Amino acid sequence: MSALPPPASAPARKAAASSPAAAAGAGPASARGGRPVVPVAFQDELVDAFVMKLKRREMNGSNAVALHTAELLRTLVSKRKYNSVGELLQLVRGVGKALEAAHPIELACGNIVRRVLYIVRHETAALVKELEAEQEAGGAAAAGGRLGEQQQTQVDLSLSLHKMIDRQSHADVDSAAGVLDAHAVVSQLKPQVIEEIGVLLDEMRDAETQIAEQAIEHIYAKEIILTFGLSRTVQAFLEAASKIRKFEVIVAESAPSYSGHAQAHALQQLGIETTVISDAAVFALMPSVNKVIIGTHAVMANGGLVAHSGANNIAQAARHHSVPFMVLTALHKLGPLYAFDSDTFNEQGPPSQLLKFDELSFDDAAAGAAAGLLGGGAAAPASSIGTSSSSASELGLLASSSSSLLEHEDAAALITVANPAFDYVEPTLVSLFITNIGGHNPAYIYRLLAEYYTPQDYTL
């Protein structure tokens, strides 16, 4: 796909705006919540390259995907041309749609896009207040006051639970594009948005270190910690605690990827006493565990988790034995979406991880005989067929082997291999979230959503 053409000249834009197609497709509001109509397909060379990486699964891991998404948006905001705040919001939202369509399970892409949309709206509100003060100082208090009141209502960032539920209290900045179309406003807004995206990038890069700094507050001497699979954040967290206190770690191997083996090896190299167990042994060993500490793929709006397959079994075992279940997560993994079961945000891994086709083999002797008789083996003379006892036995073996072949194919067709990549862990099973800004109860998630997202951007 080719890149978007450069912005049209002013006369061309005016002519396009007056055309019937423009009136139908670029009207002030769509039928869905007053939001401007955004093209479904977003075309840009940088975006296309990232989309292909996501589709081919060449980039894995929420941290890497989130960093790349933020870098991409910063580049687009700095290099692309737009004449209003509404156009900038459409640009960012269009990127989000393209990335979500490429890899719907990689929720970090959508989270970063929503964070950038929040930054645009927040910086716009601050800029409008500043311009209002300048207008009042210049003698335009009346006009500036009306503009300020309108914009203040539109981007009301109050954190009350009532306003979080009532979306009518959060009017869309898009509707104010008419008063924010001035080139001077956009030119002042652009560097501020780029700077704030840079702050967001620094936050994501430092998240792992900031989480690890809290380890000493949660891990005590001679404790037994259970973890699961491979997580760089968990590894850094345990490493920070091991520098001061001695404890033991039990690692569930996380079949079928067996990533727990790599985690155990990394912890052993750090000098931490580590034991590897099978996933089936988690419930039996849980009574001897002091706390469970795991990472996660994403955190939902209700405090539930989309974590790697097997996490829900560990959470259920921890709840049964009253063992604290702690989750380490950076804030960019927190999103405003909901997953009500394990199928909402999930995908199936390759069946070969669990069962290879050649494991459904039938009798080797019958297979060899069938290959010789049906394949390149020498054909028996026509006169001997049906006359000698050896030929009769060969024909019987051929019939038996053919039947075995058919049975083998039928058996393979009857087997369905389910290899889900993720589990959904209910928020009631989580004891504590440890984020880069501190520890939080699952019931506090709604407050974090209000601080980092705007309700009208929950759906891109």
Describe this structure in words.
- With 460 residues, the protein is α/β, with parallel strands linked by helices.
- The protein folds into 2 domains: 29-206, Four Helix Bundle (Hemerythrin (Met), subunit A); 213-346 and 421-457, Rossmann fold.
- 48% of the residues lie in helices and 9% in strands.
- The strands form 2 sheets. Strands 3-2-1-4-7-9-10 form a 7-stranded mixed beta sheet.
- β9 and β10 form a beta hairpin.
- α5 runs antiparallel to α6.
- The two termini are 22 Å apart.
- The relative contact order is 0.10.
- Residues 1-41, 140-144, 152-171, 174-181 and 362-390 have low confidence and may be disordered.
Jot down its keywords.
single chain; alpha/beta; Rossmann fold; 7-stranded mixed sheet; 9% strand; disordered N terminus
Output the structural class: alpha/beta
Basic shape: globular
Number of helices: 16
Report on the biggest sheet. 7 strands, mixed
The succession of helices and strands, N to C, reads HHHHHHHHHEHEHEHEEEHEHHEEEH
- Might you state the CATH topology name of the largest domain? Four Helix Bundle (Hemerythrin (Met), subunit A)
Q: Could you say how many structural domains there are in total?
A: 2
End-to-end Cα distance, whole Å, is: 22 Å
Question: Which CATH class of the largest domain?
Answer: Mainly Alpha
| The CATH architecture of the largest domain | Up-down Bundle
Spatial order of the strands forming the largest sheet: 3-2-1-4-7-9-10
Unreliable stretches (pLDDT < 50, length at least 5) are 1-41, 140-144, 152-171, 174-181, 362-390
Helix content: 40-55%
- Arithmetic mean pLDDT: 76
Determine the strand fraction and express it as a percent band: 5-15%
Global Rg = 30 Å
What is the number of beta strands?
Answer: 10
